Amino acid sequence: MPETATLDRFDRALLAEVQADTLTPARILAERIGLSESAVLRRLRRLRQEGVIVADVAVVHPAVLGTPLCLHVLVSLERETSDRLDAFVRTLRGRPEVRAAWYVTGEADFVIELRLPGMADYEAFTRAVFHDDPNVKAFRTLVAMRQVIGI
Q1: Domains identified in the chain and CATH numbers
Q2: pLDDT tens, 83-113?
Q3: What region holds the HTH asnC-type domain (predicted)?
């Protein structure tokens, strides 16, 4: 996919609708955005082929999965060489608790979103991923009390 895609107002409206609910039938999408059902289907196919729509996913309530605790962790590394960055990313990718991670600029090098059953699980995670990695200089934990925007 190119850095930016050329999207008209119908594409943007369609993307907003499918981001809210990917299972909305094409005929309903067509009514909502003012296109025919076949035009909606063609646009969705094109948006997927061009990589604008990356995935259609199911958002499952974390408590049902036994992971109600949501944490965001700011991680600072000692050194940001390519091999050390790649090794840290490989570690994160190998951990099922990691729901998302971003390599960022500013006071931290990474922002990591975790979903866990409880604080004892987070302590085990910190020992295995942060304390046992000599390249992790520091980490700060933000505990989410409640999600106020988003799904």
Answers
A1: 9-49 (1.10.10), 69-143 (3.30.70.920)
A2: 999 999 999 999 999 999 999 999 999 999 9
A3: 7-68
